[in-house]
Amino acid sequence: MVAPLDQAAPHATLEQDQRDAATATENSGRDHGAADIADADPGEAICAPGSAPSVTSRISVQKVCSLVGKFNKFKRDLVEEIGFGGMLGIKMLAKLNLKFSAWLMERVEVESSTLKIDEQRVLQIQDHDVQKVFSLPCGTRSICPDTTEPSAACKEFMRASAYLSKGAHSLKAAEAYLLRDDINADSSKVQIDCFKIAFVIFVVGHLLAPSTKHDYITIDFWAALNDISQIKEFNWCAYVLEHLNRAVGKLKTDIRNRNITVHLVGCHLFLQVFYLDNLDLGPLSKTKDHLPRISLFDYESVKKMIEVITSNVDGDTSFAGASFRRAQDVCYSRVHYESHTHRADVASDLPHHAPGFVGTKHQHNPVTPMLRSSFTETGQEDFSNHLRLKYPSLFDHHSGSAPRQANSNSLQEK
């Protein structure tokens, strides 16, 4: 199906994306890389003292897997040609543990680009780590908003997406184009390029840099799509990390402001895979010789790995119940690798914890994990009272204040 030529001019969409990208870049400097706060729902309610925020995320592995599962060999080859073949091997993850994601994101230090579990367990996060997880292009060219004249393929995709849905920023429009039956060996070069453009928009919007908005993506990477033949020359791994850093800043701001709902944006799935892959989990650990790493992580294995590291220390839920693997046993470069020997009673220096994402006050190594089933009988009131004593700054100091709901379900159906 070909879009009529009298559709709205593509420059309107491109200019809007450039304005959105400029706003996001300006806001990214706040709070050490905070995400665009304008993405949050207006009039965000404030979380009552003592209650845990609900956690949501629009990241959807399920949508990516469902889509690529419908591709024939020709379409899969087109994805391989642009260097995004790692997306084809992702396993179906029907649910993500969002509480685990929030716990990890709290421990990302943007300025040093590290994941700091405690003083002894610190992992450097680099572009090449993203490449090993997703097998994305990690070229020498930076991705930034561009004001150059869009290519013929970009213009055609904008026209087609305006006809198929709500424009180029619509993820449904990208999906509709990707599922077209007339994309085959007889298609024109412009149609083939449009398919590749649509695929990048789809996976960025649903997986690599999702926002808080439904079916919407701010395309701040038009420059990298203008010449499809050069798409591998851009550093898509750095792009993913940049948006993840903004997401970390946004999460910390939301928690500090005690928002009633915390929206996780950015690719927090990368943090889950990267962290679990660096842990010594015995037979659950993945062999280091296979790339991309994401293809090794199916729903059941991820669930078991999280269960093993989940512990209850002094009433706090922690995911720190395992040591790091030896440097020679992982495929990542251990720039900041530390010894397995840890000090006991290392305090976590995270001053802005909110109920539901609390840090572990005392961490011992090794930790004998307590699975969730072993402490689910602890009541909400007990947990809230514990937090009231441990984190008094998060509570009102008026006497008689009743404990509110202490936790919320953090498994988001995708």
UniProtKB/TrEMBL annotation:
Record region (Disordered): 1-42, 348-371, 394-414
Signal sequence residues: none
Polar residues: compositionally biased ranges: 402-414
This protein's name: Aminotransferase-like plant mobile domain-containing protein
Species per Swiss-Prot/TrEMBL record: Triticum urartu (Red wild einkorn)
